[in-house]
Fold this sequence. Notes:
Strand content: 5-15%
Low-confidence stretches: none
Structural class: mainly alpha
Order of helices and strands: EEHHHH
Distance between the termini: 42 Å
Helix content: 55-70%
Amino acid sequence: MEDGGVQQIEVSEDVRNEIDQETKRRYGVLYVAALKGDWDKAEAIYKDYPGDAVASLSDLGDNALHVAAGAGTLLLLKN
């Protein structure tokens, strides 16, 4: 049950799918925020999910910083 001090928890496939859908929705919101330079929306997500700052939001592995740079949304880059 424990591996390196971390307890392993069995999660049903339905729960995994629900989590995956929520993550995909959040990444979609973050992607659009990066495209539009909506720092307030991106920051709100990062407060609750700090790991999303480096999450791959595209098939190419782009994170929000890459998306913002490609779109020229400097406000997101500045923050």
